[in-house]
Specification:
Layout (H helix, E strand, L loop, with lengths): L1 E2 L6 H10 L3 E5 L2 E6 L2 E9 L5 E5 L10 H19 L1
Antiparallel strand pairs: 1-5, 2-3, 3-4, 4-5
C-alpha cells in the first residue's frame, strides 16, 4: 500500500507509461490492471488519516508506488471527478 500524499510516484508513472497497462473497473475504487505477468487487483481509498491510499496485490514492497497502482489511480481520479460533477 502507498499513499499519494507521502510517496514518490514519478518512477512508477514512467514505468506505467512505457508498459501501457490496461485498467478495467471492477467497482468504484477497485480495478483490474493487466501486467506483464497476469492481472493485479488495485484498491483506491482513503486511509484512517484521510490520505488517498492505493493498495495493490502485486509484489511491490509496502510504501513503494507500483506501476499498476498509478495506472489504476489515474482512472480512479477521472471517475471521482465525474461523480463529483454529476
Amino acid at each position: 500500500m502507498f499513499t499519494l500524499e507521502e510517496t514518490e510516484i514519478a518512477k512508477a508513472i514512467d514505468r506505467a507509461k512505457q508498459l501501457h497497462p490496461k485498467v478495467r473497473m471492477i467497482a468504484f475504487g477497485q480495478y483490474a490492471v493487466s501486467a506483464t505477468k497476469g492481472e493485479h487487483v488495485v484498491r483506491c481509498f482513503r486511509d484512517e488519516r484521510g490520505y488517498k491510499a492505493v493498495d495493490c496485490d502485486c509484489k511491490t514492497r509496502d510504501g513503494l508506488a507500483c506501476r499498476c497502482g498509478v495506472a489504476a489511480v489515474s482512472l480512479h481520479i477521472a471517475l471521482a471527478s465525474q461523480r463529483r460533477a454529476a
